[in-house]
Design goal:
- The protein is α/β, with parallel strands linked by helices.
- It has 15 helices and 13 strands.
- Helix 6 (about 160-170) crosses helix 8 (about 185-200) and helix 13 (about 355-375) packs parallel to helix 14 (about 410-425).
- The longest helix has 23 residues, at about 315-335.
- It is globular, with a radius of gyration of 21 Å.
- It is an enzyme of class 3 (hydrolase).
- This is mannan endo-1,4-beta-mannosidase.
- It comes from Anisodus acutangulus.
Length: about 450
């Protein structure tokens, strides 16, 4: 999803300001609502996590089927660079654990600009790397796994555009399009070097290399890839094949996905029946073709009907979203034989007819799909809200972000989903303290 332009601009211009009152309210919230998190009879330093594995169309942990109630907080690494902000990292991860959530998707990239992890090709800021180390270590303490994305198709946090700029400074990859990221040999070498550096990074807080750390649920090659200069899809397909093979040559312990939005390409028979509109077939990506590779462990889909349509009302968008999800679950069953993950879903508060209750209906529709899939041992393997924040983070927000506990009905939807999934496939050891009492008293 596109990050807030305002937040990106302010970040590049020298930092962010957070209201003292907002932070005080956040600390008060943690104390009043999550104070028991500090008093659990569990040594968080010794939480044991196992690698998540895939067996056919399902994920497994310790021999049990694993269905995910997850969320996006893209900002974790960037925010953790400043030590004074780290209580917010701890806060959102503790809050996620309290709600029974199991996986958080976040960025493991920031290319060029303010708080860059990769300053230029092969040059890294150790201060920012330690921020990512901290995020991973803090996630493990709270029993939360991470899905880490490796680069952005969009401009926010550098993305493929920054790689093209670097190459242009070296006098190579001169192109009017940033799609040269996908085909230029020099840029491909830049990205492979980045991937290797991240995957083999030894965490200064845990002493564990990223590729050996079960806290990491999966790697995502790129957030929302599009290659519009080649609508045939061949260029992007070649890139995915090369990069996924490269990742697996370094790390065979972790799952890997592409990071797709889920659009069907020109060669797909579904291009005119399942896509939101005609333009979606010309983006250079194809859900089935891109996800079919043996090096890709599961397929990803995003669900943003209000961004894809501008002439439909809420009821029509809700109907499309349900059809969209069902289409991809069927693809997983009939074509891919892999788990399907809805790694971003959200509803904008900038719609003309927006009402907060609409979000709850949209959320419930998505969550119900995953619950029914879990109940039937099918391949709709999980969903991730876009996006969760804590108090005082307005500059990281967009028109989709929420603070879950500010709206009781939304908070209840989230926690009930965690309970429903736990009742079908058991409670993970890392969830036990949070769910054993809450779920017993929750009406589903």
């Amino acid at each position: 999803m596109v990050n807030s332009p305002m937040s990106r601009k302010l970040a590049r211009n020298g930092g962010l300001f957070y209201p003292v009152i907002g932070f005080a309210l956040f600390v008060t919230f943690l104390y009043l609502s999550f104070g028991d998190l500090w008093g659990l009879n569990i040594n968080r330093e010794t939480i044991k996590l196992s690698f998540v594995e895939r067996n056919g169309t399902q994920f497994y942990v310790d021999g049990k089927a694993f269905y995910i109630n997850g969320w996006n907080s893209y900002w974790l690494m960037d925010h953790a660079v400043d030590y004074s902000n780290r209580p917010r990292i701890k806060g959102i991860l503790q809050a996620g654990a309290k709600m029974g959530l199991t996986v958080c998707r976040t960025w493991a990239f920031n290319d060029g600009g303010y708080n860059a992890l990769q300053i230029s090709p092969g040059r890294f800021d150790e201060r920012v790397f330690r921020a990512l180390d901290h995020v991973i270590a803090e996630a493990r303490k709270n029993g939360i796994r991470l899905m880490l994305s490796l680069v952005n198709n969009l401009h926010a946090f550098g993305g493929k555009t920054e790689y093209v700029k670097w190459a242009e400074k070296e006098g190579v990859a001169l192109s009017s399009s940033n799609d040269s990221f996908f085909y230029d040999p020099t840029i491909r070498r830049y990205f492979k070097n980045y991937v290797k550096t991240v995957l083999t990074r030894r965490n200064v807080y845990t002493g564990v290399e990223y590729r050996d750390d079960p806290t990491i649920f999966a790697w995502e090659l790129i957030n929302e890839p599009r290659c519009m200069t080649d609508p045939s899809g061949d260029t992007l397909q070649d890139w995915i094949e090369e990069m996924s093979t490269f990742v697996k040559s370094i790390d065979r312990k972790h799952l890997l996905t592409v990071g797709l939005e889920g659009f069907y390409g020109r060669r797909s028979p579904k291009r005119s029946t399942a896509n939101p509109e005609f333009w979606a077939a010309d983006l250079g990506s194809d859900f089935i073709r891109n996800s079919m590779l043996s090096t890709i462990d599961f397929a990803s889909v995003h669900v943003y009907p209000d961004h894809w349509f501008h002439d439909k009302n809420f009821e029509e968008k809700l109907k499309f979203a349900a059809k969209w999800m069902l289409s991809h679950i069927e693809d997983g069953d009939k074509e891919l034989r892999k788990p399907i993950m809805f790694t971003e879903f959200g509803l904008s508060n900038e719609n003309e007819d927006f009402e907060p209750a609409q979000r709850d209906r949209f959320y419930k529709m998505v969550l119900d799909f995953i619950y029914k899939s879990a109940k039937r041992n099918r391949l709709g393997a999980g969903s991730f809200f876009w996006q969760f924040l804590v108090e005082g983070m307005e500059l990281y927000n967009d028109d989709f972000g929420i603070i879950p506990w500010e709206r009781p009905s939304t908070y209840q939807l989230i926690t009930e989903q965690s309970c429903r999934l736990a009742r079908e496939h058991g409670v993970l050891p890392t969830q036990m303290e949070h769910l054993k009492n809450f779920c017993a008293s929750t009406r589903l």
